[in-house]
Known about the structure:
75% helix, 5 helices, mainly alpha, globular, 0% strand, DUF6477
Amino acid sequence: MDYTDQLDSLRRPRTLIQAARIGMADYRRETHLQQCIEAVPLPSANAATAQLLELERLENHRRLDDDMTYSVKKHVEILIALMSEARLLRASQSSCNLM
């Protein structure tokens, strides 16, 4: 299963997804991705998506387990970055298919 399939199969509360979609309008890779994965230099969209999928999975487990360390804010920030990086990944795959 590739990353786009994994993203398409994610099932999260509508409110989280709606908040992330709204946040995507202000997404700035250099700032937001850096806050989520703390990598210098920033990885490719493919590598970032892999890392963000894992971070999101962990944060979702915290949510489902009613873990006191769960942060809605952090979860939404990860989803914003994940959805934005996935958009970049899909765009790069589409442009490669056109060549």
